[in-house]
Records
---
Amino acid sequence: MAGQGLALPEPKNRLLLWSVLVVVSLISGAYFVGNAFFANEYKQCLPLAIDLTIHKLGLSDKRLARWGLIHTISNSESNACKRQCLPFGTEALPEGIIARTSNLEMRPLWDSGKDHQKILSNVLEENLEISSKRILKRPLNLLAMAVGLKQKEIVSKIVEKFLSSEFVVMLFHYDGFVDGWKSLAWSKHAIHVSAINQTKWWFAKRFLHPDIIAEYNYIFLWDEDLLVDNFDPKRYLSIVKEEGLEISQPALDPTKSEVHHPLTVHKAGSKVHRRYYKLRGSGRCDDNSIAPPCIGWVEMMAPVFSKKSWQCVWHLIQNDLIHAWGLDRQLGYCAQGDRMKNVGVVDSEYIVHLGLPTLGGPNGNEASTIRLPWR
Ligand SMILES: *[C@@H]1O[C@H](CO)[C@@H](O)[C@H](O)[C@H]1NC(C)=O
């Protein structure tokens, strides 16, 4: 038995062994080449990413040098990085000064930067991770609405709920009456933008560029004729995160809402639904349906977008879009994967859609003072 272990294989077997070896080395060769290629690609962009983070944290060069970070960065720099990763038009600027994105945060007129300095020294003294969280402790979600003064009462209720949930609130005034909102206590905490007779989509395209709102995790782009008595923004957010919904909307209370599509109707006792069934008549929706209006769809009156889906949707919004009819059916492109999973309607937090003739609908701008039918 002992002598058999090292015996050479028969010539036929030897050939087989060689071909196996050749195949294995080819595969591993391809693997290493591929790896080197990707690592290289990644490296070229990495210094800038680090740089941006450092810039964001406002860390000084001295401290960084002490940590040995600067050294690492300049070593791994390459011209390819400069060419490929810097925003177009910034070639003349020193690296590290470029602020690529922004936010909607308002700043005090005489910001001495004292708090900022205090936070920074904490960063250096304490654990970096914990402190950077503290720096980022500011509202990380955005509510944007196109509003007219005639809906003041309803809008105010919505805004109060979102502001108390630490949202940034941006109001687009299509009627130009910005001053009419001043009497409300929250008014100075909202950002007001005014342009006559423009729709929510016009404003969103012009003022919600993904680079400007890069810090907000979720973007609520809502109409003004919604009641939020059964809606809590924080609970809603925790549900969409948990369910992985990239594009969502709260369900509509069918007893009080103007409902256009049965998919959006509130289902009592449910948390979230993604499809609806219509097993008779025309336009059937069953388990085999894979497209709107049966599944993977939200309407345009109260959509909620994740940061990633908004980056896509912003590009989808055409510059001549007015009411965006039909846009809803295209949102699946921006679902970050399977729209049947990533697009859905939240039932446990739901709203009422009043369907008021506000801006430019069939009865556009004829809205007189609002009468809520059930009051
Ligand atoms: C805005 O729209 C209304 C209704 O269509 C119209 O009467 C008004 O003249 C428009 N205003 C401007 C500045 O275009």
---
Amino acid sequence: MKSLALILCCFSSLVFCDSSQIVALENYNSTTPTKIQNVLDASKLYLASSDAAAKLGRITVTSNGQSKTLNQLLTDFDANGFHNGFPVNSDLTISTTNSAADTDALNGLLFISSPDMAKDPNFLVYSVRDQVLPIDRSNYNETTLVLLNLHVAKVATDPDTKPFFYTRVDGIKQPENTQLYMYLGVPGDGYTDPKLQANYKKLLFKNPISLLQPIGNPPADTVFFNNIEPIQYTLRSWHIRAVGGGIAFNVSRQWVDSTTYQTTKETTTGFTMSQRNTHHSTVTYKYTPNHDGTSGYMINTGDMFADMNVTSCNEGSVSSPAQSTASPVTSTQFPDTTTKSVTSLSTILTIAVMISNMI
Ligand SMILES: *[C@@H]1O[C@H](CO)[C@@H](O)[C@H](O)[C@H]1NC(C)=O
Ligand SMILES: *[C@@H]1O[C@H](CO)[C@@H](O)[C@H](O)[C@H]1NC(C)=O
Ligand SMILES: *[C@@H]1O[C@H](CO)[C@@H](O)[C@H](O)[C@H]1NC(C)=O
Ligand SMILES: *[C@@H]1O[C@H](CO)[C@@H](O)[C@H](O)[C@H]1NC(C)=O
């Protein structure tokens, strides 16, 4: 039985400045127009905020002789529901007439894309709203979709596991011979190159998946999964890339408690992410007695703390090294029993790719 593992490379980290950036509204408290640093000409500005419209109306951004209040940007969508974005140059300034206390309490962010992104017709930005947005890119070979999560206050009846930020992506339809990638955070320079180190470090999920062959037995196999479990992402921003053909899926601001999760098909892939903080989550794979299968997972701990364990099928646990981008993958051949589970516990964040390849 071939060992199942993702091809993962570890790189040492490099610090560099991207031409895209995120800035927090709470950091700009002045009535005097204040320059936002490191903005290139021909960029675009996008707002993601669940702050009160009245407060956003007291904040003004100005560039190239044009001014907008953030209130105006909040509802500036195209026919498909994506943000139009405000074209800006390096002279971009921001000013506010909100009180210092009001500024302090703002949760909104500005995403300033790079000039490359601003002129890419397949670069889409969406700040995730309650209603379901069906995204159909089946007629496009290339898609970069930036998803910006809004802060959602919790109510007394919400479980402790519920995070303050979330997106749910489901009904994913991905044609074979296409590539799907999901990344932490917003895209940076060279966002269209999946091999770039900076992109690799932010990779959460991809389909197809490359399997590691035993040494001396190349080439690596690639497995395409027809079924992708619904995906929930619980940090402020992420992005999805689809290459080589169109994909379709639904995006919504929904959160379904996934501390216990049952996969929907025998052969499937997906990822699980810790919710508000430290919680066990258990994934149970669908299983047919007397069939054989393999599973594996990838852990991405990029920019996160150590102290994370993943246990699979009660066969022991793997501890991830501090600050590693991706730990080695273990594989498990399913014995002939009825329940399979992956249990993960993390102080901050756990992301695992689950593979159940039942034959
Ligand atoms: C505005 O922000 C600056 C820099 O963060 C800070 O030094 C200053 O005290 C703030 N002013 C008010 C009125 O909060
Ligand atoms: C999309 O990709 C397919 C397959 O690579 C290619 O045949 C087709 O010409 C591309 N279409 C466009 C509009 O780029
Ligand atoms: C996607 O959303 C649309 C509109 O709400 C709904 O009709 C459709 O059933 C959803 N598709 C999936 C696969 O969830
Ligand atoms: C992970 O496993 C190690 C070794 O078994 C243990 O010392 C550590 O406490 C575990 N960490 C968590 C978060 O459970």
